Amino acid sequence: GLPAALPALPLELTVLYNSLLFTVGSSDSAIKGEAEGIRQGLLRVLEACGACGQDLGMEELWEKVLQEVTVEELQAPLHRLGALQAVWWLAASQLGSVAGLFHLLSTAEDPGRAHCSEGQNKLLSMIKAWQVPPEEASLPLVQSAKDLKEILCTAAAFLQGLQELEAGNFPTAISLLEEAAGGFCSKKILAQIYTCLGCCAQRMGKPQTALQHLKRALQVDFQCLPALSHVAAVYHEQGETDAELQALTLLYEALGKTPPAAASPSPCLLMRTELLVHTPVLTSLLRRHHPTEVKYLLAQRCLQDGRVADAVEHYLDFLSLLQEGLQQQVPLDGSSVLPRIPEVFLEAASALEQAGRHQDAITVCEEVISRTTDLIPRVLQVEERLEQPECSLPGAELAGRLLSQKKESLCCLAWRAAGYLHQGWAWAKLGESKEAVTQFSRCLSDLLRVQLHGSDIKQTENLQPEVEVLQKIRLLALIGRGTQFLELGRHKQALLDFQHSLQLSPGDPAAASYLVQALWKLNRKQEAAAQWQKFSQSCPGEDGQQQGQGRPLPLYLVSCLEQAMFPHSEPLARSIQDYLGAAAQDTS
């Protein structure tokens, strides 16, 4: 409450500087908001000089103080307080304000020195151009302004590097991040910088450089486990499955261990780089996977690579982890690598089928079927284009909610139908053709709930992803049931299913081959030969292109697609060629 007095202000500003540093250092949390104490200090300075600035913003207030206050004894305390203000602005990513402040600080000392050379980073040049005021023995500091300058340089380079990385300006980002890596920071921050350098190199298509940076991050601080996640991602992009699985295994083991207690920061460093850098892009790059997510990635990669035994082991481990309250452990903000839980069950069933554990696969699918039964309406009407309405339109919120509910119902229907589909193939592998037909029929009966309006069901390219999956399940169920009808000698019913398959997906190689086989078994050899010639004359790459069109097939359907492939192509082709050769001789 004492009036401001010029003789006491150097001490007053130094006490303010030290107290703000103590406040930040004791909280040990990211700097946020404004430093109100700095504003009050500047107003006290103006008051002592007979001026006022109550109505000014912080940038205008600093400009007024540095331009109008010329008392020599106040310059050093004001410059130190200016460095502290830059810390708060930098933590808020107000880079323009920081550059403007250091321009004022430098021109206040020497009007000709605040100059940025061409090609240099403006903000870093401004900070480096600032001359740190000398310390006075009578006014001790809890952290020197020189330390603050080094921290500001490192944090400014790091923040700008992250901004350029997010914007896709990778060469500039690498230059700035390398500048930050050579700055004043802890091992923890240095490891984070190397991780960001690795991510930048990965996005530039330089996997080996990325791996070098990421391995350097782990050498600096092995607790920087996000670097190990990115190592696995780089190996995945390169198709190096062994190395990827090794990295994921190491990551899973490290996540399961109790991390060593973090070393307490040096008492001399109340202000540290980690308190300034907390941007969303950094949070995203350094997101720490939960062990269950890594376990799922191990299962998924093994299944994709055909390592069925390992996939089964990992999926069963993952399903056991569900008992530990997975929903409370994995983030629900969309950043998790986990798909919806029914899809994981279906992938596990797929792995069990491929491992020959058909009864276990049937049991896992039954769990999916029972859990989704009550979530599916009797009839689902789907238009050709299910578009999200404009937010500005009346009732858009209600329409969006209805669309979301319809999508969810379609997903539940797809999962249940896929459960029946997997059970059908599992019973087929067990030699139980009648039970297989029953499950395939249940799958097809479920899919009759979907009524498509405004489009031909043959043309799925404009339909929603959920409907495309349903159409693929229907195709696989028709082929599957047709194969079991053939096993049971019910060739006419098999023929109908294969004909319906081709109506749903014209040119499908499996459906076409099975159609020819059904005609052949019905002794309609001339028709079979004609159909065989028709499909054989189509371009060999056509089918492959057709299979590759649209969105990728869900992983849980890949094994069903493989099981639906026609296994007797060569023997059937030879029989038809012999038949055509004999027919040609008879004609001649």
TrEMBL record:
Keywords carried by this UniProt record: TPR repeat
Ranges: TPR repeats: 475-508
Pfam families found in the cross-reference section: BTAD (PF03704)
SMART domains: TPR
Signal peptide: none
GO biological process: interstrand cross-link repair
Any Gene Ontology CC annotation: Fanconi anaemia nuclear complex
Superkingdom as given in the UniProt entry: Eukaryota
Bacterial transcriptional activator domain residues: 455-536
Name of protein: FANCG protein
UniProt organism field: Rhabdornis inornatus
Highest classification ranks of the organism: Eukaryota, Metazoa, Chordata, Craniata, Vertebrata
Gene: Fancg
